[in-house]
Here is the input.
Amino acid sequence: KLPFMFYKNLTITPQNFTTSANWHENLEIQFCLDGDGIVLLDGKEYYITAKDIIVANSNVIHHMNTKSMVKYSCIIIDTAFCEQADISPSQLQFDSFIKSKKLFDLFKQFNESFSDTENSCRTAALRKLILEMLIELRLNHTVSVNNEITQNHSYERVKNAIKIIREEYNKKLTLEYIAKQVFTDKFTLSKEFKRFTKMTVVEYINNFRCKKASELIGDGLTVNDAARKCGFNNMSFFTKTFKNL
Here is the structure.
């Protein structure tokens, strides 16, 4: 019934943040609540503080980190809901960095409505507020579609490389294998991957494996079993990599 996913009051510190850049088709809006940090969008860095808004457009590679602390909430809006309103994320591109009292006030109303589980019209109210956010983005924060990114072969190769890593992280992965799967050579892929994610391919693989291992450990697996299931064959290397995150 709800055309979105809402992640509320997330806190990131230098010791607690994901090092894995991500991308997806759905539009994502991030609202900075407190602190400061850096958001990486397609290789470009944006410095954010309280009340700043970040829009991760459709299929944009994004990642957040901080040197101190940043608290934020994010809404990931279902593409089908956007398209029903004739505001298609695949056809439109919005400003990536926004300072907007109106948009932030809509988020505050959304946050209150989300918490009001006794409201018989809660679902309708939330859908209405999401639609109002989309209308505000469409009317006042739309930029031309970035054909240089959406049609860029380098960008597509990096996206496909990330998809391979996320799907095959528990297998033996090499730079040569991934490059072959995305129809390029390892030198080109290394350069392009670093450009868009600020990480090497190997760093991304190891960090993503550690993230998945951490989830398995939280589910009750032993450290050794979790590490092996996520592609680590050397426990000392896993321990060193995990501690460095």
